[in-house]
Write a structure and sequence with these properties.
six-stranded parallel sheet; 15 strands; alpha/beta; seven-stranded mixed sheet; 8 helices; single chain; globular
Amino acid sequence: MRAVVLHEYGGPENLKFETDVPDPQMRGSTVLIAAATASVNPIDWKVRSGVRQKDFPLSFPAILGRDVSGVVRAVGANVKHFKAGDRVLALSNATYAELVAVDDSLVTRLPDGVDLADAAAIPLIALTGDQLVRLATNVKKGQVVLITGALGSVGRAAVHMAKKIGAQVIAGVRGKELDAARSLGVSDVLAIDDDKAIEKFRLVDAIADTVGGEVAANLFTKVKQNGSFGYTTVLPESAAAKNPTVKITRVFTQPDPSKVREFADDVRDGTFVLPIGRRMALRDAAEAHALGEKGGIGKILLLAPDSKG
């Protein structure tokens, strides 16, 4: 099969499009997906570069990628709920390929009315945003939650889930993005690159952080006593000392096909909108990584060689 293969840690140029990669192996519970699309996530280039090899070590040659949408090509002998021809969506591994083998417990059907190619944008960001709000920060109906990086893909998913729960959502973004953030239907906005704005900012029940670094550390004092701080990236070691009563939880995204389907249904219904920044060919994965690392482009999708997306 055709796939993008990484033979060693390094820059985007280490991603090689190859045409003779062995097909994935089938097992009894395998759903073999003819991929329409994979998506590019920040974790992909962090793993590729070796920055996250302690948490996500690779065995080379390796195929990156966590999201896949496509059509079922074949199923293992023990698979009862999927058949060839089904349109499906999954959070998996090794998705920068035209064939992806996924355990049936991780697969969900894609609802009619959702574009097959664009659907690959959903799984990882949806589950990360959901688990950040619902599990890490444990936001409840009526509480006030600040979500940083609210215009990013994970941030948008977190805003969506917090609003569904019934929380009051404040979008934390850069000052130049305040008007755009208001379009998310939030109750308020905060310029998280403005120290004076942060100083004047009120206390909140929880912060769901997708930005990390000193920005996140500066916000610790804005969480109420015994409140919660959930995060997806990296915090300075000194951050917790600024507000010792706060419960701090980092998100390590876990598969949950029912939640992936819930977000896909919301996309179909128009209640969750995830802008796509760029659609590129799978063979251009190296260029996609370079663009993604520069930032500011939005969600990038990689179309499989035979995709009509």
